[in-house]
Amino acid sequence: MTDDVLIVHGGTPIEGEIRVRGAKNLVPKAMVAALLGSAPSRLRNVPDIRDVRVVRGLLQLHGVTVRSGEEPGELVLDPSHVESANVADIDAHAGSSRIPILFCGPLLHRLGHAFIPGLGGCDIGGRPVDFHFDVLRSFGATIEKRADGQYLEAPKGLRGCKIRLPYPSVGSTEQVLLTAVLAEGDTELSNAAVEPEIEDLICVLQKMGAIISLDTDRTIRITGVDQLGGYTHRALPDRLEAASWASAALATKGSVYVHGASQREMLTFLNVYRKVGGAFEVDEVGIRFWHPGGALNAIALETDVHPGFQTDWQQPLVVALTQASGLSIVHETVYESRLGFTSALNQMGAHIQLYRECLGGTPCRFGQRNFLHSAVVSGPTTLQGADLVIPDLRGGFSYLIAALAAQGTSRVHGIDLINRGYENFENKLEALGAKVERA
Ligand code: EPU
After folding, report:
1. 232, 267, 285 — which closes off a domain?
2. Which positions does UniProt annotate for phosphoenolpyruvate binding (predicted)?
3. Which residue range is the domain that position 207 belongs to?
């Protein structure tokens, strides 16, 4: 498919200003939350990305009207006439995203049943949904797996419960929140994920009338209420997209002002950026990231759940680490297969060796299990343009960064995948002076 190829002429630092809007990992979930209300909700700072379009389509299939609000990037979601959707229509969204699984609790509350098609999302590990279904069964749901998807019912309604997650999974924590707020009685969730996007979802639900507390020990307590209203909310900015542009500035020896980036949600990233040798300056409306000249430093990096170093920051930063002097060690502890993208970087001239062992300070779930989840990056290396096929969202953006930093021309195939999570990225690249063109 030639129309899905971006030609990148590398070797020029990217310089200028771009804007990030609401977080991809919050906005679609806040849209699902609107389904729980008895009144319309207004969500602001909504980016035009594919995950938003998928959820919009699924909501509309279930009778929620979704229209643009007064300000750009505002959605008004009206759940007054929620209705059952045709299974074949829902199934048309199979494989498009991971968000459909979060419809379970809200649909069980509103309709008493739900159908969830096969899920999509990035191929960065097995990505099972066992925690989600265990959680839903704890609330009293029954789940029947058929060839086309999962059929759920709640014959006796949903009741609050005590749950401990085996791992602080983001999606499973959201599943509990979206189900517990209207369940009968109290729910206690321990070992919960506490990512900033989850806190923002809690803010959304609290605005709707929910009662939710978040303790410092990863325990979330929810007291179910009979009814929720609508909300008006401005989505928190996308800290993952902001970090991607920051890494692009570093790898290309450039300078990017990311309008909308927020320091509070990026503390851990900013510390690592500074250790590598990147420079940044925070002001009231954004952060400027740049390469200050001189050599970059090799570092030891371990991904983790929040407040650790976010796994989605890892792939773009690894490209910058190919330009650092010495041996960097990267231990990926959230997804077992999130380092596969490095083989293409090696074809471009990088020296990255993968290991099955846990090379970080802390042994993780993937040690001794045959997963190549640690890397040693030896640098600096000069990258050369190449033919690249995008493997997943963040890996894909990382290939763009590598192509921009490389000498010569690259052809990046499967470029549309990046639209899943990066709004208008081609316009942004052009605004930063990148030499890119569609094949
Ligand atoms: N896990 C299970 N069973 C489950 C659920 C999760 O074993 O039922 C495991 C996963 O396989 C993984 C770990 O738990 O090893 C963490 O998964 P989590 O549930 O936290 O991830 P997610 O909710 O599916 C979201 C983001 C990801 C981000 C992770 C971690 C969305 C739509 N996706 O995924 O974002 O990496 O949390 O913060 O919110 C991305 O933006 O590129 C991306 C992949």
Report:
1. 232
2. 24-25
3. 27-232
- Helices 239-251 & 393-405 angle (0-180, nearest 10): 20
- Asked if residue 334 belongs to a known ligand binding site, the reply is yes
221 plus 275 within the same structural domain: no
Q: Each residue's pLDDT tens digit in the chain (439 positions)? A: 457 999 999 999 999 999 999 999 999 999 999 999 999 999 999 999 999 999 999 999 999 999 999 999 999 999 999 999 988 888 887 777 888 999 999 999 999 999 988 887 777 788 889 999 999 999 999 999 988 889 999 989 999 999 999 999 999 999 999 999 999 999 999 999 999 999 999 999 999 999 999 999 999 999 999 999 999 999 999 999 999 999 999 999 999 999 999 999 999 999 999 999 999 999 999 999 999 999 999 999 999 999 999 999 999 999 999 999 999 999 999 999 999 999 999 999 999 999 999 997 789 999 989 999 999 999 999 999 999 999 999 999 999 999 999 999 999 999 999 999 999 999 999 999 999 999 9
Which mutation among 124, 127, 369 tests ligand 1's pocket best, with the greatest number of atoms within 8 A of CB?
A: 127
Residues 225, 253 contacting (CB under 8 angstroms): no
* 406 half-sphere exposure, CB direction, 13 A CA radius: 29
Pocket of ligand 1 from Cβ distances under 6 Å: 24-25, 98, 122, 125-132, 167, 169-172, 193, 195, 240, 311-312, 334-335, 393-394, 421
CB-side exposure of 342: number of CA atoms within 13 Å?
27
Query: What's the predicted TM-score (pTM) here?
Result: 0.97
Please indicate, yes or no, whether residues 359 and 212 belong to a single structural domain of this protein.
Answer: no
First to last CA, the chain: 10
Give the C-alpha separation, 188 to 148, whole Å. 33
Instruction: Work out how many domains the chain is built from and give that number.
Output: 2
- Asked if 104 and 8 sit in the same domain, the reply is no
One domain for residues 140 and 125: yes
Tokens of 186: 């109290």
